[in-house]
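User: structure tokens for this one?
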Amino acid sequence: MGLNCGIVGLPNVGKSTIFSALTAAPAEVANYPFCTIDPNVGIVSVPDARLDKIVELIPTERVIPTTFEFVDIAGLVAGASKGEGLGNRFLASIREVGVIAHVVRCFEDGDIVHVNNKIDPASDIETINIELALADLETVSTRYNKQAKQGRLGKEAQKESEKTLPLLGKVKECLELGNPARSLALGEEDLAVLHDLHLITLKPVIYVCNVDEDGISEENKFVKVVRAIAEKEGSDLIVICGKIESEIAALETEEDKKEFLEAVGLEESSLNGLVRLAYHTLGMRTFFTAGSDENRAWTFRAGYKAPQAAGVIHTDFEKGFIKAEVYNCEDLFFYKTELKVKTAGKLRIEGKEYLVKDGDIMHFRFNV
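Assistant:
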């Protein structure tokens, strides 16, 4: 699974507008379908107020946030699984991402055409979900037929078929109904069997409701429809006004951006919420290193042990790992200085089995 987020949706729902505001990378934006032909890739900083607080308490020369990758993928239309529109490119690109941000148009504007000439979020979502399910169905059916034939080639092959065919059949039936494979809530063992199929509909989805200026302050009827679908699927949802976000991104100073946000009644850019949500949905967490030279945020996967986290900084750190000095940033925020953290007994020496926690501040001891 890729460590990135793919922004998908029907043409003209605001994907490229949101992507451009998100990454400050000028994706081509136009009022007609398929203006994004090749995936645009942008690297964004992950907003983290904890890093700002650490800098206040531990002054440093450099501050480096962690980052996350977003991919703006060409709009999909009905028939994409059969090659309609830019279907083949779309499907190839989306297989490579780790989480899907599905942008749904939740505003009316006669000046911006809709590919189906009507605003209907439920229909838009169904169009994409069916196309993705059909693409996965082809993949699963091919594997199912191949596995069934191999089952006749010997005892070992037969054992493998007896193990995998029921699972493949279960997934195949689900996809034939137009439902995503993730709706089956499969266990880790089953997911491991399916891993090399790279099924699109197993990927987690975040629904991004793109609203007009009025939709930010009050949830409109379109957002309510999407929310009901997201809740039924167990997916996350976030509301964004692409127009407002593009205006914020065009401002030059943080002070100007702050004033603009206050004027529209927002505490921060809604895109910050999207970045954090996509980051955490993928199981990404953050630890910090802090010192007079540099305060830095590092990305690690939930479940990493101390040597693996050390390897995020440099492979030599993992190979030669000895111990880690650890305390959580919340302890620093409470006690205000590292000395007081140590005096309070909150700084610990941890070994190879320590499970790193989100927000840990770490110093690694290693020998190479």
